[in-house]
Design brief:
The protein is an alpha+beta fold. The chain has one domain (about 10-255). Helix content is about 30%, strand content about 25%. It has helices at about 30, 55-70, 90-95, 95-100, 125-135, 185-200, 240-245, 245-255; strands at about 10-20, 50, 75, 80, 115-120, 120, 140-150, 155-165, 170-180, 215-225, 235-240. A five-stranded antiparallel β-sheet has the order 5-9-1-10-11, with helices on both faces. A hairpin with a 2-residue loop joins strand 3 and strand 4 (about 80). Helix 6 packs antiparallel against helix 8 (about 245-255). The two termini are about 20 Å apart. The mean pLDDT is about 90.
Length: about 260
């Protein structure tokens, strides 16, 4: 990698609302409570569920790879493959590479680090209080029973899945978009697309069975220029849908707030 200069950052904060029950799996051995078959991931200190930044970023990238048609050329497990740029031409061809990053073992030089940082998102304090008062099946969560049906014998195999109930809010959410190169501002629109893809799909597991629909709310955008690194006057939107209606204006605002010439 050649020397790079941080020209500025766009910081997106907000919250994530679970529209349907949310299941992001944890380790059954270490984190299971009450012998649930499929537990959620919890903070080791507070015991509260949270959304790992890796889960949110990974889902955004996975959907972005599909919408761009990036080849799924690297196997990372049984029946699981992802896109990894094989050369500089492929890196440049698919915007998922500069936006989300590439593994350190790639054999070619990349012009700048990945542009996106995604923080872990804790359970909102107000939601945590409501869930405790609601006396859910387990602390902060519900238990959803499912059954796998044998297609030949019709025999049912029941299992339990732990979910954060619908309506729960996770906050603060924080996405950091780094601008290193003059053309990077053009990638910011793709970040918004990736967020929209998640809203239209699902987060976590069992999405095809109703879990994991989420909504981005209470969004605030602030730019910080690289030199003095002082925040500009921000822009606020109630929902991602509202932000997307102003998509061109937002990209123009980022371009003006972080001069790249």
């Amino acid at each position: 990698m050649t020397d790079v200069t941080l020209l500025g950052r766009v910081i997106i904060t907000g919250r994530i609302r679970a529209v349907t029950g949310l299941h992001i799996g944890g380790s059954p051995g270490a984190l299971a409570i009450g012998n649930v078959d499929m537990p959620v991931i919890r903070d080791a200190v507070t015991g509260r569920p949270y959304i790992p930044g890796s889960s949110l970023k990974g889902k955004m990238r996975s959907l972005a790879e599909k919408v761009t048609g990036a080849p799924q050329n690297k196997s990372i497990g049984k029946d699981v493959a992802i896109h990894v740029a094989e050369d500089r031409a492929q890196y440049d061809r698919y915007w998922v590479n500069p936006l989300f990053g590439v593994p350190g073992e790639v054999k070619f030089d990349v012009p700048a680090p990945n542009r996106l940082i995604v923080r872990d998102v804790p359970l909102d304090e107000e939601s945590a209080g409501k869930l405790l008062n609601a006396r859910t099946d387990l602390p902060y969560t519900e238990v959803k029973w499912e059954a796998a049906i044998d297609r030949v014998t019709s025999a049912a195999t029941p299992r339990q899945m732990e979910r954060v109930p619908a309506g729960a809010v996770f906050a603060p959410m924080e996405l950091i978009f780094n601008v290193y190169l003059p053309d990077d501002v053009g990638l910011f629109g793709h970040l918004l697309t990736s967020m929209q893809l998640v809203e239209d799909d699902y987060l976590g597991g069992q999405g095809s069975r109703g879990s994991g629909k989420v909504r981005f709310e209470g969004l605030k955008l602030v730019c910080k220029r690289g030199g003095e690194y002082q925040p500009t006057e921000g822009r606020s939107y109630d929902t991602l849908a509202d932000l997307l209606k102003d998509r061109q204006g937002v990209v123009a605002w980022v371009r003006q707030s972080i001069p790249t010439a």
